[in-house]
Amino acid sequence: MKLPSTNEIRWPRKIATLAEAVRFIDALGFCALFPITGLPLPSLYFAVTGRNPHIEHKWDEKSAMLWRWKDELPLKRRAFYAKYFRGRGTFISLEFLPHFLAMDDSAAAPGEYASFYSKGRIGEDTRAIWEALAKHGPLPTLELRHACHMETPAGNKRFKRAILELQRQLVAVHFGAEQETAAWASGRYELTCRAFSSETRAAKKIMPEQARATIAAKYLERHPAASPEIMRRIFGWSKAESFAACGTHTK
Question: pTM of the full predicted structure?
Answer without folding.
Answer: 0.93
